[in-house]
Write a structure and sequence with these properties.
325 residues; 24% helix; disordered N terminus; six-stranded mixed beta sheet; Glyas_Bleomycin-R_OHBP_Dase; alpha/beta; seven-stranded mixed beta sheet; signal; 2,3-Dihydroxybiphenyl 1,2-Dioxygenase, domain 1
Length: 325
């Protein structure tokens, strides 16, 4: 028996249904920005990855500008003040922590200058209404905005990390967290070495889109650290005084074994680790440079604060955002 052929009218109907399905499921007219990285992909959620979450980004604000700082992060974006630094807010002096979803900004006071990240910070926003509210506050219809010190933020409507929230203050009703941090690098040749660094040190699977100038490094199932060829204009700070990222890893000892030769002790902070035992005791250690493991070439300076979610005795580390889960 010859197989039946589909009537042309039905064929058109099927095509239309497929298009509608794709539009409803995968293409949203309300999404204002795409990082180019699918955080739900198998690469991002791979069980072999050692990275759990990008916990915070630390950048300096200009000394004596607490009012401008809080106006942007709290009044405009709707992030919330972490109570552990409330005293500094009341004094209008020192470091401020602000929360959004599972992530934070640690906003240290410059001596006296602020810091500007060479790249962009992508924030997950709760809803279209929340996005429009922020835009109205800034009298703009763009989803790209700048803080008072020149850092570039991109707002993307996206869900919060379902694993939990920062617990140091009220939950933000507008900002669901840091979705991605995009950093500029000098050349395309740097991207391969950066990929080798993260794949070797943290056992993640990096990826590139069709754009050869961009590299995506998954930081857990819902975030990424992106590297893109672009201008480097703000790299004249002293070691240990620049921006840094904080991340939690599943196995601190395992990461130490791969990165101990890069260990960096920052005199700015009380918690310091010179050895593995001290790293276990402090639930963290730091590295200062991204180094290509194949050539031993330092590619770029980006301080990483690498944290453990548990104390040496196995109890939960107090600042881990997912302790309630």
């Amino acid at each position: 028996m010859m197989p039946r052929t589909m009537h042309p009218r039905w064929a058109v109907a099927v095509v239309l249904l497929v298009i509608i399905h794709l539009s409803n499921g995968f293409i949203s007219p309300h999404i204002k920005h795409s990082t180019g990285f699918d955080a739900t992909s198998s690469d991002a959620s791979s069980s072999s990855s050692n990275i759990i979450v990008l916990d915070h980004l630390n950048i300096n604000h200009e000394q004596g500008t607490h009012d401008s700082l809080l106006n942007f992060y709290v009044d405009t974006l709707g992030m919330t003040i972490d109570g552990r630094k409330l005293e500094n807010v009341e004094k209008k002096k020192g470091t401020v922590w602000v929360n959004g979803g599972a992530t934070q900004f640690h906003l240290s006071e410059g001596k006296p200058d602020p810091q500007v990240v060479d790249g962009r910070i992508i924030l997950a926003v709760e809803s279209e209404d929340a996005l429009r509210k922020i835009q109205k506050n800034l009298n703009t219809d763009s989803n790209i905005l700048h803080c008072p010190y020149g850092n570039t933020f991109v707002l993307d409507v996206a869900s919060p990390d379902p694993r939990g929230q920062q617990t140091g203050g009220e939950i933000s009703s507008t900002i669901n967290g840091i979705q991605a941090v995009e950093l500029n690098v000098k050349t395309e040749d740097d991207l391969a070495g950066i990929a080798r660094f993260y794949e070797t040190t943290f056992q993640v699977t990096t990826s590139q889109t069709k754009d050869p100038t961009t590299l995506h490094v998954p930081f857990g199932p819902h975030q990424s650290l992106n590297f893109k060829v672009g201008p480097i204009l703000n790299d004249d700070y002293l070691d240990g005084t620049g921006p840094h990222i904080s991340l939690y890893v599943k196995d601190l000892e395992q990461v130490w074994g791969r990165a101990s030769h890069l260990n960096y002790v920052n005199p700015r902070f009380k918690r310091q680790a010179h050895t593995l035992e001290e790293a276990k005791d402090q639930c963290m250690f730091r590295i200062l440079h991204i180094v290509d493991p194949q050539t031993s070439r330092p590619i770029m300076r980006l301080e990483h604060e690498i944290r453990s979610p548990t104390e040496a005795d196995g109890s939960p580390y107090k600042s881990y955002p997912f302790n309630n889960n």
